[in-house]
């Protein structure tokens, strides 16, 4: 039961998952368990050490998670009995992630010990007011604390509802595939309003998949591989990257941009 160091790999678009993973990390440390946090977008799956306990954290997107997070999980090295646990954050419903991830890691030889889904404020479509968001974050972090304590005590489970989770998983894969299409990239194109942009380049630094490059004058150039983690729109200090699907153009962020920058920044 948590008698090895924990390597906790996570991605967070707008900060919800970051807060949950940070809090879990603190709880582990309070119990003298050594834990290191790694950002998935800055990590290579082949560097994952199956001699440690592995944690995975990510947001739910389109009923499962972002394609680049799937790729990381699917590329984890084989293991023989390495303990692994997961946590995700979501606005309301997933269905296509807990079971399918369990099958993937189990087939690679990991021992799945716990999975937990934590409701946090939505970061897309309808952005709640500050008071409602803060209340939800507080409740979510409390749940994260309890989950970490239960993991330490060995009182967690990573279950699976086979038919339902597979059906939702395949629905989600169709959604993720559609996200990649040219049509969708055109319909939902996130692009910078040159009049408002101050060329601070934070969007370029934050994009987890290098979908934002810089023009010669330092202004951002958005390519067509966006996976809609919403970092660029949410953290632009000038509000220069409007999100076409958000009600009244509001954006959400749970932390300051610097928390999500690569660790070497
Ligand atoms: C493109 C996209 C798709 C999402 N899909 C779902 C979903 O299927 N179900 C859900 O409950 N929340 C969904 N959400 C909401 C996020 O999962 C939720 O706000 C999460 O806590 C964000 O975490 P982060 O701040 O770490 O990125 C979606 C958000 C985005 C940006």
The CATH architecture term of the largest domain is: 3-Layer(aba) Sandwich
Major beta-sheet overview: 5 strands, parallel
Please state the overall shape, judged from the principal axes of the Cα atoms. globular
Compute the separation of the termini in Å. 35 Å
Number of domains: 2
CATH topology of the largest domain: Rossmann fold
Tell me the Rg in angstroms.
18 Å
Q: Assign the CATH superfamily of the largest domain.
A: Flavodoxin domain
Helix content: 25-40%
Question: Number of DSSP strands?
Answer: 7
Mean pLDDT: 95
Share of residues in strands: 15-25%
Count of alpha and pi helical runs: 9
In order across it, which strands form the biggest sheet?
2-1-3-4-5
Report the uncertain regions: none
Protein architecture, described:
With 265 residues, this protein is of the alpha/beta class. It folds into 2 domains: 6-170, Flavodoxin domain (Rossmann fold, 3-Layer(aba) Sandwich); 189-260, Alpha-Beta Plaits. It contains 9 helices and 7 strands; from the N terminus they run E-H-E-E-H-E-H-E-H-H-H-H-E-E-H-H. The protein has helices at residues 16-30, 67-74, 98-107, 130-153, 162-180, 182-187, 202-206, 231-235, 257-260, and strands at residues 6-10, 35-39, 53-59, 83-90, 111-119, 212-214, 220-222. The chain has a 5-stranded parallel beta sheet, with helices on both faces. It has a two-stranded antiparallel ribbon with strand order 6-7. Strand 1, helix 1 (16-30) and strand 2 form a beta-alpha-beta unit. Helix 1 (16-30) packs parallel to helix 4. The radius of gyration is 18 Å and the shape is globular. It binds flavin mononucleotide (FMN). Residues 12-17, 59-63, 89-94, 120, 122-124, 228, 230, 254 line the site of flavin mononucleotide.
């Amino acid at each position: 039961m948590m008698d090895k160091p924990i390597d906790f790999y996570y991605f967070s678009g707008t900060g919800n998952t970051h807060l949950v993973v940070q809090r879990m990390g603190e709880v582990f440390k309070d119990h003298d368990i050594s834990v290191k946090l790694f950002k998935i977008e800055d990590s290579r799956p082949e560097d994952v050490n199956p001699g440690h306990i592995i944690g995975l954290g990510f947001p739910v997107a389109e009923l499962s998670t972002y394609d680049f997070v799937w790729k990381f999980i699917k590329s984890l090295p084989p293991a023989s009995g390495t303990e692994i646990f997961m946590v995700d954050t979501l606005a309301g419903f997933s269905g296509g992630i807990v079971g399918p991830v369990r099958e993937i890691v189990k087939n690679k030889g990991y021992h799945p010990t716990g999975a937990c889904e934590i409701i946090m404020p939505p970061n897309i479509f309808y952005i709640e007011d500050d008071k409602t968001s803060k209340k939800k974050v507080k409740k979510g972090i409390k749940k994260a604390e309890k989950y970490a304590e239960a993991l330490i005590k060995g009182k967690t489970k990573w279950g699976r509802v086979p038919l339902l989770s597979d059906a939702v998983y395949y629905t989600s894969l169709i959604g993720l595939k559609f996200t990649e299409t040219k049509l969708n990239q055109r319909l939902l194109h996130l692009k910078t309003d040159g009049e408002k942009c101050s060329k601070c380049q934070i969007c370029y630094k934050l994009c987890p998949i290098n979908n934002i490059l810089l023009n010669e004058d330092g202004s951002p150039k958005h390519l067509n591989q966006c996976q809609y983690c919403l970092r660029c729109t949410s953290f632009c200090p000038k509000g220069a990257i409007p999100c076409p699907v958000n009600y009244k153009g509001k954006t959400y962020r749970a932390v300051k941009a610097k928390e999500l920058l690569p660790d070497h920044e």
